[in-house]
Amino acid sequence: MSDERVQPDYRQTLHEAVVETSRAVVAGSLGVVEATRRLMELAAELDALDDEDFIYFIELDSRSDGFPLGVAREQWSSTALEREDLDRRKYEDAVHADAVAHCRSLIARYAPPA
Predict the structure, then answer these.
(1) Which residues neighbour 50 within 8 Å (Cβ) at sequence distance 6 or greater?
(2) Distance between the two ends of the chain, CA-based, in angstroms?
(3) How many angstroms separate the CA atoms of 57 and 78, rounded?
(4) 50-99 tens-digit pLDDT
(5) Maximum CA pair distance of the chain?
(6) Residue 114, SS3 per DSSP
(7) Nearest-CA neighbor of 54 among 39, 66, 64?
(8) What is the DSSP secondary-structure string of 17-74?
(9) For 3, which DSSP code?
(10) Residue ranges per structural domain of the chain
């Protein structure tokens, strides 16, 4: 018996990333804004920008693209980051329930069958 591992194809890897990101939002371990940015990249790679659930996140992305995340935060003052982080938390609280519903739908669609 060979010890070689089967490598997943690229599309399967994208599906797994959609599921992982969506589950993190549902679990509360990943913020909606950060998840939105990840999901936008994945939707583009999957050519699924016209999917109803991804359309929801496209709209969120356009409304939240000003919030600094990742390396962009290095360019902001601590005072400005405090203000933006507070605004981002308020925004995420307001959209969280709908985002979770769309994430559950993505999980149902992209998770491998049990």
Answers:
(1) none
(2) 26
(3) 28
(4) 999 999 999 999 999 999 999 999 999 999 999 999 999 999 999 999 99
(5) 60
(6) coil
(7) 39
(8) HHHHHHHHHHHTSS-HHHHHHHHHHHHHHTT-TTSHHHHHHHHHHHHHTTS--GGGGG
(9) -
(10) 10-110
- Pull the structure tokens for residue 96: 């969280």
* Residue 20 structure tokens: 């992982």
Let me know how long the chain is: 114
One-letter amino acid for residue 51 of the chain: D
pTM: 0.87
- The one-letter amino acid code at 103 reads C
In the structure encoding, which two tokens stand for residue 5, read together?
């591992």
> d(Cα 60, Cα 73) in Å, to the nearest integer?
20
